[in-house]
Structures are given as C-alpha cells and as structure tokens.
Amino acid sequence: MLRPWQISLGAQIDAGRSTPMYMQIIHALIRDIETGRLTSGTFLPSSRELASALGVNRKTVVLAYEDLIAQGWLSTEGTRGTVVSRSLPKSLGPFDPGPVPMSDPATRAVPLDDEPQYRFSPPPERPLALPGGAGIKLDEGAPDGRLFPADQLARAYRSAVQRASRANRLQYRDPRGTERLREQIADMLRSQRGLNFTADNICITRGSQNGLFLALQVLIHPGDAVIVEELTYEPAVAAIRALGGKVIPVGIDADGIDIAEMEAACRRHSVRAVFLTPHHQFPTTIAMRPERRLQVLDIARQFGVAIIEDDYDHEFHFQSQPLLPMAGYAPSQVLYLGSMSKLLLPALRIGYLAAPRPVIEAIAHRVSLTDGMGNTITEETCADLIESGEVRRHARKAWRIYAERRSAFAKLLESELAGHAQFTMPDGGLAFWVRFEGNLEAIEERALAAGLRFASHRSFMSRNSAEKGLRLGFASLDATEAGLAVAALARAAKG
C-alpha cells in the first residue's frame, strides 16, 4: 500500500486557499491518477491515516473518498480498503518518478499548465478592444452611459421581467428575437428611416458586431472576397478574415468609396459583399453622397454583390436631416445593420439586422447554432423603453448634449492642436477624424506614455497607403475629461 508521504497530496493541499479542503484532496487525487502517479488498482491510505498525514479532519478525507467513489475514480474492496478504480486504464499519463516533498513550500500549490496541448487559432498581436486600466480613454465614438438614468433602467428591467413572466415569454423562443422588439424596431425603421420592413425582416443580435459576423457567415465561404474601404472598421476586417474571406481594400475620397476601383475589384475577384458605413463613414465621418450611393448600387447589382450597410449612429446628425439609408431604396441588395448601443447603452448589447426574409431565416439558423436565442429579458426591456417613448425622449436629450460637446471638442482641438493637426467638423456621428503633422507613431507613443488610451491609427487602415489619422470620440467625455484628454494629446503632438 502507498504510504501517505509517498503521495504528492501534501504538496497540493493548502488550508490557506479558498477552495474547500475536501475539494483540494479530490483535485489532487484526480491529478495523480491522470499523471500516472496513482495507477489502476493502487490501494490508498485509510481515511484516518491520510487525515493524520495531511493534518485535516478525518471526515474531510471520508467526504473526498465518497465523492471520488461516486464519480468512478475510486472503488472500495471491502475490508481491504479504497483503491484506484480497476476499470481505469493502467496508465493515464506519464509517470512522474519520485514523491514530491511535503515540506517543500515552493511546491505547495500546483501551478496551472497554461500551455494548451492542442492546436487553436491565436488572437492577433493587437487586440480589437481598447485596453482597460487607469488613464483617460479616447474612444472611437461611444455614447456617454451616464446620461441614461440607472434607476429608470432598473425599473424598466423589473417591469419587463414581470410582464414577460405573466405572458409566459421567459421560455426558449424564436432565434430571431422577441416578437415585440422586432415589431418595435421595424416600426422605428419605417417611421424614422423610410425602411419598409416588417418584424419578419428583422433579426435581433447581441450588438452590431455580432450582427456583422452573422451576416458574413451567410454571405461568404473561405476564399470569397469582401470589399472594404482603405480606411474602415477593424473588427469588420477581422471578422472577414476569421471566416476565411479575402479582404479587398478600395480607396475613398470626399464623396465616399472609389467607384472605378470598386468596379475593377469586382472584375478581378470573386466578390460576394462590400462593407460600408455610408451615413458617417468609419473612421473619417464623411457622408457618402447620393450619386455615389447609386453608383455603388449599380455595381452591386451588376456583379451580384451584397451590400452590408452599417448605420451605427443614424440618430446623431447635427447639420441637417440625415440621408435615408441605402436599404430604403434597395432593400433586396442591402443587409442593413443597426444598433441600440449608441441610442441607449452599449452594455445592453442590442443590435439588429434587417434584410429580405430568406436571409433573415438563414441568419436565424446561425443564431440557433451559436447562441440558441438572445437575451429575452433585455430585449423585453428594450421593447418597453421604445414603446413607452423613453428611447425617443432620451435620444432628444442626448442629441442636445452631444451637439454641445461636439462644438466644445472642436474648439479644444483648434486651440490645443493649432499647427499640429487638421480636422473637419463632422456633420454627424460621435467622433472626429484628426490628421496630425509629423511622425504619428512617435506622437502615439508619447500619448500612451502620458496615460491616454485610444485606438492606433493602424487599426483603421486596411492597406498601408491609406491616410493616417486618429478617430477621437467626444460624446462620452464631459468638459473636464475632454479638456484633460486633448491637452495630453497636444503635449504628445508637440513633442
């Protein structure tokens, strides 16, 4: 029989850890079985003997043994004692010769092996999300989550839960999303954006990025090409590549995507889709002019190309009435992607896709594969907020605040960065596109060292020849925060 000091348990048990002692013993014994230290048919010490060696209560060991017997790792053989189950393979892993000294403090905790023993696709060197931590965050155009009252949101959640429970709507349901929210969004798109969609043309997603990924899943196969602008939304590029698609960058000018280059790309490649942000181009904020939109649609029809229209912040246009989405006059050519994140809160994770019904059914199937269904409670809450008029009231309030912040941010940029950067006041959206004089890489390094957190200019470039600049969000910053951020950026720009 193995003696207690011949088992590595002592090196793995620590009363100071938060994990219960009996669970520590269970994990240690399983590990010793998996590594081959304890082989099939090996007798273990009695509960009394092991408890004495480990300095624990005998009941703790009994509880661990009983649990392992119930799981099938151990078995009892009457008066002979407890044994590693004889039904297990004789060797489950390489045997580590020699006992681990119980008195060695350096080995009292078994470290997790953080190197997986299998193939996987690693993440990119530069993460898509801005890092957390201290310092001032200059986002790419996020709303200010502080503007929506937390108590009002809590009341809406409580009301939605109660109403859904009474109506038995808290079960598994349609992967397209709750019918109430799809109807509310379809009505909003008809009345405010001129899109003739019904609830059957809507699929609720977990934010716009989830919607974009779902759209690409039903549009492309590995090797298919997707056109993006040379300055674009990096997560879209990453999603295309993750699905095996080929990214085809195309130039842009003051009116939008370069039509001649887009047509040439469609002739050279097997293009299945084009990703566009025509209302407020990401990242430059320019609006695609109507004649350019019609030209894009002509090419898309000629080559059978789907247009993914990401209308991520339609409501926030400050100079005039926003242009109608392309989906409004070409619904059979366009997959329209929208979000409630800018309108309400990013944390709600409510986005939506609007498209012809067969496409929505295909997307719903993808939802079934990856998620089963969305978040019913949050969707019901969002539907209540739209139905009660709270979304419209909040949008009007936020619009006024963001309009003021936009003007104030422009004045800050003019005063702090005069002679070191250029920008054009955006007609809409929640960010500025700023082009810097000098070495932008060096400016970024100094700004990061000063405690600013922002997206690198390279994150916007789908090809190296694209214009360099930074997209600086203003909506999520109050006056003090914006002042500190721009001042730090100015110091970095001036060297």
From TrEMBL:
It holds the Pfam family GntR. The lineage of its organism: Bacteria, Pseudomonadati, Pseudomonadota, Alphaproteobacteria, Sphingomonadales. One of its GO terms (molecular function) is transaminase activity. InterPro entries: Aminotransferase_I/II_large (IPR004839), HTH_trans_reg/aminotransferase (IPR051446), PyrdxlP-dep_Trfase (IPR015424), PyrdxlP-dep_Trfase_major (IPR015421), Tscrpt_reg_HTH_GntR (IPR000524), WH-like_DNA-bd_sf (IPR036388), WH_DNA-bd_sf (IPR036390). SMART domains: HTH_GNTR (SM00345). This is PLP-dependent aminotransferase family protein. Keywords: Aminotransferase, DNA-binding, Pyridoxal phosphate, Transcription, Transcription regulation, Transferase. In the C-terminal section; belongs to the class-I pyridoxal-phosphate-dependent aminotransferase family. The keyword Cytoplasm does not apply. Residues 19-87 form the HTH gntR-type domain.
